[in-house]
Amino acid sequence: MDFNSIRFPQQQDLRNFLYTSHGETYDRTLHLIEEKTRLKREQIFYGLLGLVLIYLIFGSLAQFVCNLIGFAYPAYASVKAIRSPSKGDDTQWLIYWTVFASFSMLDFFTDSLLHYFPFYYVAKVIFLLYLYLPQTRGALFFYSSIIDPAITTIDQWLNSRNITSMENRDFRKTN
Question: Of 28, 71, 116, 151, which has the fewest CB atoms closer than 10 Å, so is most exposed?
Fold first, then answer.
């Protein structure tokens, strides 16, 4: 079996992204790097990815890099979604941020795991990418299978005790 001939759909998506023009500066910079290194763009990408993964294990700012990966692209994509006339992309990113917030609440307690699991930030980056990449739609999976049912249960509990949710309250001052 020739392993070089095996192609995954994600590889083609990556190749399309890397070779699509993202502006003159991007195109010129990558062309220059390709000429100097004599490597293809995807090889450069995989090399940089390997360096980031090594840094996530041994680097002193691994938590910052991990959080940057979890925030930077999703924040950019969220702004682009808000600007677009379609509401479907708004919903996609709102779901991501809801899942991300829920995960962040659990993540707060994981500092003690770092001593036993040195690959924690690598696993966290993989999880965050799984959540926001359109090929995986991980945030939608977690939202529909965990968060939405949990919120439904909380709403039912509040309603059974005649407690109205914050969105239904009138906070205007009355004189």
Answer: 116
Whether pLDDT at 132 is above 70: yes
Supply the angle between the helices 120-132 and 62-83 in degrees, to the nearest 10: 10
pLDDT of residue 15: 82
Q: Give the confidence band of 167 by pLDDT, cuts at 50, 70, 90.
A: low
pLDDT of 168 reads 58
Half-sphere exposure of 64 (CA within 13 A, CB side): 4
Which residues are within 8 A (CB) of 73 and not within 5 positions of it... i.e. 6 or more apart? 132
17 neighbors 9 (Cβ within 8 angstroms) = no
Residue 99: its pLDDT value, please? 96
Name which residue leads in pLDDT, 135 or 143: 143
Alpha carbon distance 22, 33 (integer Å): 16
